[in-house]
């Protein structure tokens, strides 16, 4: 049975842990709101790019680009999976890894067991998880020192340009991206998005339609503009994915710290109750000893 001194020490330790998790929750919450702001700023840019492409597709012209060419035979697939660089975010990385395993099974069922799969893990924690997968047929590709869960701007641009070249040169026939989609502070879901080849139906989905009632004069020709704008669209997609991943990671960490803080409070209450009971028992024992001594006298 624990002594009063031991219980007092445990109470102090749990109380300190509660303060730490509370502070970490506040920090993660601030980072989450910052990531939310970055995500909102990206939406108008992507919407405008999609509108431009939708207007181009509505023109009476034919379009061709190596980025939209769907391969009849898929021999190698690249999967970019975004995780976290830091821990203490609950089952965030584990859920992504489970979806990756399921995706590998899906690809082998669709294209045969001989299909090559390149995995590009982003984030230190995801790199560790992927490296533990016991499957010699998988090719784990390092993304480089400048690509991590916090990457943005020029680093993301270099990364998507590299993937585009791999696709154009037929080193891979399809590029998938696995990441955590941010819905709200309390809800994030694993999402699989096909990056390459680009599906033209994307530009007519979710209300993305050509602007009607406005005559357009394309200079240079529409196909040249299409070839120039398409990489910008892919860049906007990848930037949004990285922003979604950052916001989701911080939201998961907020929830994990909230859960840890709640558990610390419950444990603190239990320890405090046990401490009070033991203290009351000690006082009662001392009183009984005093009363017993007076009776003997």
CATH class assignment of the largest domain:
Alpha Beta
Distance between the termini: 33 Å
Strand order of the largest sheet: 3-2-1-4-5
Instruction: Name the CATH superfamily assignment of the largest domain.
Output: ATP synthase, F1 complex, gamma subunit
**Count of strand segments:** 5
- List the total number of helices: 5
β content, as a range? 5-15%
Mean pLDDT: 82
What kind of oligomer do you see? Answer: single chain
Q: Rg to the nearest angstrom?
A: 28 Å
CATH architecture of the largest domain: 3-Layer(aba) Sandwich
Structural class by helix and strand composition: alpha/beta
**Count of spatially separate domains:** 2
CATH topology of the largest domain: Pyruvate Kinase, Chain: A, domain 1
What does it look like?
It is a single chain. A 5-stranded mixed beta sheet has the order 3-2-1-4-5. α1 runs antiparallel to α5 and α4 (154-168) crosses α5. It is α/β, with parallel strands linked by helices and 297 residues long. It has helices at 4-58, 92-111, 124-131, 154-168, 222-296; strands at 76-82, 116-122, 138-140, 174-184, 187-196. The longest helix has 75 residues, at 222-296. It contains 5 helices and 5 strands. It folds into 2 domains: 4-25 and 256-285, Orthogonal Bundle (Helix Hairpins), CATH 1.10.287; 28-255, ATP synthase, F1 complex, gamma subunit (Pyruvate Kinase, Chain: A, domain 1, 3-Layer(aba) Sandwich).
């Amino acid at each position: 049975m624990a002594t009063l001194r031991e219980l007092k020490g445990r109470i102090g330790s749990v109380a300190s842990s509660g303060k730490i998790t509370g502070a970490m929750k506040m920090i993660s919450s601030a980072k989450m709101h910052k990531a939310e702001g970055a995500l909102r700023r990206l939406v108008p840019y992507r919407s405008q790019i999609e509108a431009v492409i939708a207007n181009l597709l509505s023109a009476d012209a034919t379009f061709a680009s190596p980025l939209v060419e769907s391969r009849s035979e898929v021999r190698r697939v690249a999967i970019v999976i975004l995780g976290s660089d830091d821990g203490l975010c609950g089952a965030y990385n584990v859920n992504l890894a489970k979806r990756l395993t399921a995706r590998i099974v899906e690809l082998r069922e669709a294209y045969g067991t001989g299909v090559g799969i390149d995995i590009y893990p982003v984030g230190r924690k995801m790199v560790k998880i992927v490296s533990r997968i016991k499957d010699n047929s998988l090719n784990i590709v390092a993304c480089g020192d400048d690509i991590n869960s916090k990457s943005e701007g020029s680093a993301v641009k270099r990364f998507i340009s590299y993937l585009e070249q791999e696709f154009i040169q037929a080193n891979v026939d399809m590029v998938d991206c696995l990441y955590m989609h941010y819905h709200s502070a309390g809800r994030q879901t694993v999402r699989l998005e096909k990056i390459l080849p680009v599906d033209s139906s994307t530009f007519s989905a979710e209300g993305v339609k050509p602007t009607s009632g406005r005559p357009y004069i394309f200079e240079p020709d529409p196909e040249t503009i299409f070839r120039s704008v398409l990489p910008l669209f892919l860049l906007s997609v990848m930037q949004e994915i990285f922003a979604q991943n950052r916001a989701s990671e911080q939201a998961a960490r907020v929830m994990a710290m909230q859960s840890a803080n709640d558990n610390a409070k419950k444990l603190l209450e239990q320890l405090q109750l046990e401490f009070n009971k033991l203290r009351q028992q000690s006082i009662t024992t001392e009183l009984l000893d005093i009363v017993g001594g007076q009776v003997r006298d």
